[in-house]
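[job 4471] stage=fold_predict status=RUNNING
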Amino acid sequence: MTNDSDYFVVRTKALPTVLKKVVEVKSILESEKGISIADATEMAGISRSSFYKYKDDIFPFYDSTKGKTVTLVIQMHDKLGFLSKICSEISNYKANILTIHQSIPVNSIATLTVSIEVREDTSDINSMIHEIESWPNIQYVKILAQESTPGL
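[job 4471] inference complete, writing structure tokens
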């Protein structure tokens, strides 16, 4: 099987430690102004060469979604008002809902597909996904697709 994609969405738990540490170094550099890369890499416990090798290749998901359309698939128990609760949560994060499709529930399980526009004022989409995923009656939330919004 060949895959020509340059990008993949991978959960943190599947990443090698070195890549997690690179993200940590980038976070340290952003939050602590004036700190050197040498000090930040030492704090994170990786070498400078490892940081330089991967620094342009990994970043938190929400950084890569600004100005994009993200399509989520949410599998949930069919409960009264739950679609409204999900839409409200998306709105709380200032993401714009573009499309919604909810399947007819089978064995009290419904599948919701929602495409959202992630704008500059949208909060951390990663946090939104984790929040929704933690609710009772939600089986899972998966990122189905991510694409650029025309004109951005």
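[job 4471] summary: The two ends are 33 Å apart (CA to CA).
[job 4471] exit 0
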